[in-house]
């Protein structure tokens, strides 16, 4: 069973200034600090105290809960302690007005330092993959090995216009607090389906929350700030140019039907991660959901490799 590490992040969330959004009726947590934040996490205890832990970071709109099945399975196949963490502005972690790979990398470093973990294996999917790539290049001595799930450090397929469509649909949603959770979910789903495809809606709907005391609906992810962040996603490469290559063991696990990694980028990627390998699974962007058995096999073999 995972042990929840929400004690500090929950306190921060409760004490953060809260402001009623003028159009949504959503309660939005506010924190303007660019300092590292204390991330919410689940921990899966490992059998070996000598092996560096594995830290798992989800993608955009995701949370540590999305990785619960993978974490439990990995707990059975390798001796490492596993931390599944919520990125800032996601899940149960604090909401801030700053969201980029640099700040999220600082959060990961802070997370490890607070637990006196000088080194860890890092696994990131999509947005989390870009964060972990940045973290590895910025802090190579803290990364034993790196696993990147279906994301390229070179380019992204989704245009700013497409991402704006997603966030506009989320931010233009108003749900009366008098509705039940099931009624609110139905209203939200119908609203989002007017603009978005079923797969995107299903994933976004995992973020809908209802306050048991006030009845207010909100998004677990900080959609207002994330909508601004997506316009700066392409800055990742230019910022990354200032960082040295990460020469530690690295594996990319990508979906052959996903647009998030292109084969023609591999020579450039090897310049950044010269000790990297790549595996293609018959899947889309959510490789760990669509091909869980093969994904777990690849991750387990890589983690147990000497």
Task: Tell me about this structure.
- The protein has two domains: 3-19 and 30-157 and 234-304, Alpha/Beta hydrolase fold, catalytic domain (Rossmann fold); 160-229, no CATH class.
- The protein is 38% helix and 17% strand.
- The protein has helices at 7-15, 68-77, 101-114, 127-138, 160-171, 181-193, 198-205, 223-229, 235-240, 266-272, 287-290, 292-304; strands spanning 3-4, 17-20, 27-30, 41-44, 54-57, 82-85, 120-125, 143-149, 208-210, 217-219, 250-255, 276-281.
- The longest helix is centred in the middle third of the chain and has 14 residues, at 101-114.
- The protein is globular.
- The two termini are 28 Å apart.
- Residues 6-33 have low confidence and may be disordered.
- Its EC number is 3.1.1.116.
